[in-house]
Amino acid sequence: MKAPVRVTVTGPAGQIGYATLFRIASGAMFGPDQPVFLTLLERANPTSAAALKGVMMELSDCAFPLLAGMRAVQDPVEAFRDCEVALLIGARPRGPGMERADLLEANAAIFRQQGQALNVAASRNVKVLVVGNPCNTNAWIAMKNAPDLDPKCFSAMLRLDQNRAMSQFAEKTGAPVASIEHMAVWGNHSPAMVPDITFATVEGKAAPSLVDDEWVKNDFMPTVAKRGSAIIAARGASSAASAGSAAIDHIHDWFCGSEGRWVTMGVPSDGSYGVPEGMVFGFPCIVKEDGSYEIVKGLELTEDTKARIAKNVAELQGEQQAVAAFIPN
Ligand code: NDP
Which amino acids does the record list as binding substrate (predicted)? Predict the structure, then answer.
């Protein structure tokens, strides 16, 4: 039996936490022969502590053979001690009357503290996935507050956007999702994101040859970018199962390798495609079997994609300025 992977999850009693934990423990994240040990960051408030207790009782009742153990911890340093995978899902939701700047600041405080705790306590090869919004900037804050960890330990979740793009395209063309390759989503996890079919193939055929440009610009791109709001309107709550599934996909492919497939990850830029170095940005990546990844380089972007990428860079620069007080010198 392999040694368990030590996974820490924040926001474990929230919607996405609930949708994700059971699948981690069942083997969906790391494979059917890889045990896991779960550490759940508990918030010091009686309502959420009680909810978390209930989640842990249910996890226990599943009798998952791969769940080697679990614990709830309140102190972030203790929660991240030796962790190899960290899912940062917990975040401050936007409350009534809260401005965007207030939301950025409230979350900046959370992700600064978690970055500092990861810096002190996590495995030096930890793989951190930030789900809590604004996820690109939250990941950047955590990364900047963890100077002793490789910046490549940090990522933000744009996989839900890639999955949405693939399924919209599959629906339009009638092809199975599994036949779609090289779908990319560039940028910020915000309505400005850039779903890009330029390099995609469907059963080996070039995706742009299968649909018209008008559909791509006026239907496909806005549908993917605004899907989160459409889910809230339909369900009365934000995406949870699909977000949890994307988190499973993201970590699965980062941990096990993407077998040559492109996977969209929000990762610190290496300067590719004019994105400032260090900015956490959605790029198509390929992950090797050893868990190291590279941004796909040398793609000929259309002028429209370049302009949209520039808009995302400006948006993220604005977010970075708003949280500058949370970044160490
Ligand atoms: P929920 O409101 O259901 O859960 C939020 C969790 O965050 C709860 O566990 C809550 O704890 C915790 N939390 C709230 N405030 C704080 C705080 N100040 N410090 C630490 N933890 C806190 O939200 P969801 O699970 O639906 O969503 C979680 C995040 O994921 C949100 O930011 C959402 O916007 C984001 N998201 C990201 C997506 C992506 O593609 N990147 C897609 C969908 C959602 P408690 O139980 O104590 O209240």
Answer: 94, 100, 133, 164
